[in-house]
Design a protein that fits this description.
12 helices, 24% strand
């Protein structure tokens, strides 16, 4: 349980080389979540800093807690031997956010990480050491995999940003001549919105990988205008695919900005119907993914594994489609898709349309129960300015851009940031619960 600091890698590398298994914990986890993970995974020792020491359980399998503020790391304890390692040996147990129940530990192997590194080096034709900035949490799969592991595989250098702030990130890119960054779309958006953007020399920045959410085309256009040298690369994946299963060639981003790219060389991705039948090109269904980078399952949770894995495929829970050129598109999460009067509304599509409005800084679209239509659509907006704008104005803006049944029924406008987790993902459940706890807002339809 550490933030972005050198001690994270100095702990992780000898552990995995000695055949150990790491369990990265986000520093924002609560004590109860940490206690559950410790009970489930039964770790032998923990490495943390003084500020998070109190979150670790008193009664558990943990024999020793090393606090890095108190004199460094126990190198002799962690790496007293270097055994031969097998490809299928475990390297990590990474727990999900637990938004639908107790966290589940996705198990990842050495071969999973090897393929993530090889896929990035091959797909992006990386043949020189990278100089990378770690902006995502080191404990997240996207920080540990595509950023740190790929950079080490390139014999490159990692510079660490302890906490993401747009100005600090841009200052670090300039000062350290960073050329490779992995961030979520919100982080790119915050950089583009910064009034200080023009004050930084970001010419060293060549590779801009993004994932974790759909990048609104309006944000891609802002990046193009401000950083023409930056090669934007959409990479889709999850913890269960060791962070990646598709990569968009940067030269193809402009031709299909909403695509998450092409399947990796060793991966098989199918679009499946609700009854488990593979769907043809152009039709929408759940993505099932199989390949050497896909997790073997969940740690000591056969029930969850049987639900999520079938015949080597991981059922992603993402709704997507494939075009004639083989490019994949993610339309929404199954749990975020809104069924309104029998019509399917992809929240991401509405959000992308809203992000094209010049006064919208951020937005979240979600469904709430309705006795007549099944669900109604809510749009919660973070505005950029103090200009007077209301739901009627946004409704008029959307009318010619999306179908009428996709138009939001309710509007919630303000200037407060929308809730996101440590990895930058919108917490729509928080917004939905808050709205349901209040009196329903005025219907502007």
């Amino acid at each position: 349980m550490l933030d972005n600091r050198a001690e994270f890698l100095l702990a992780v590398l000898p552990i995995v080389r000695a055949g150990g298994v790491i369990i990265p914990l986000g520093t924002r986890l609560g004590s109860a979540e940490v206690a559950y993970i410790a009970e489930n995974a039964r770790p032998r020792f923990a490495v943390t800093a003084a500020k998070w020491r109190g979150k670790l359980p008193v009664r558990s399998s943990i024999e020793t807690i090393y606090v890095v503020d108190d004199g460094g790391l126990p190198q002799a304890e962690m790496a007293r031997s270097f055994p031969a390692l097998a490809a299928e040996d475990l390297i990590a147990i990474i727990y999900t956010s637990g938004t639908t129940g107790k966290p589940k530990g996705a198990i990842l192997t050495h071969v999973n990480f090897v393929h993530t590194c090889l896929h990035y080096l091959y797909a992006l034709a990386l043949d020189a050491p990278l100089r990378s900035m770690l902006a995502l949490p080191a404990t997240h799969i996207a920080g540990f995999g595509p950023l740190m592991s790929v950079t080490l595989a390139s014999a490159g250098t990692i510079v660490m940003l302890p906490e993401f702030k747009a100005t600090k990130a841009m200052a670090m890119i300039e000062a350290e001549s960073v050329n490779f960054v992995v961030m979520v779309p919100t982080m790119y958006q915050l950089c583009m919105m910064s009034p200080d953007l023009a004050n930084y020399d970001l010419s060293s920045w060549i590779y801009g990988v993004y994932g974790g959410a759909i990048m609104p085309p309006a944000v891609i256009e802002r990046v193009r205008q401000n950083l023409p040298r930056l090669r934007l690369i959409n990479a889709y994946g999850a913890t269960k695919t060791c962070a990646v299963c598709t990569i968009m060639p940067p030269e193809a981003t402009d031709a299909a900005p909403s695509s998450v790219g092409l399947p990796l060389a060793c991966d098989e991705i199918r679009i499946m119907s609700a009854d488990g039948a593979e769907l043809p090109v152009g039709e929408t269904g759940e993505l099932w993914i199989r390949g050497p980078n896909v997790s073997p399952g969940y740690w000591e949770n056969d029930v969850a594994a049987n639900e999520a894995f079938a015949d080597g495929f991981w059922r992603s829970g993402d709704i997507g489609s494939r075009d004639e050129e083989g490019r994949l598109y993610i339309h929404d999460r199954l749990k975020d898709m809104i069924t309104r009067g029998g019509f399917k509304v992809f929240s991401a599509e509405v959000e992308n349309a809203l992000m094209a409005h010049p006064d919208v800084a951020d937005c979240a679209v979600f469904g709430v129960p309705d006795s007549v239509l099944g669900e109604r659509t809510v749009a919660q907006i973070m505005l950029k300015t103090d200009d007077e704008i209301d739901g009627d104005a946004l409704l008029a803006f959307l009318t010619d851009r999306i179908a009428d049944y996709k138009l939001p029924d309710f509007w919630r406008l303000g200037r407060d940031p929308l809730p996101r987790n440590q990895n930058g993902k919108l917490q729509k459940a928080v917004l939905r619960d808050a709205m349901l706890a209040e009196q329903a807002p005025r219907d502007t339809s």
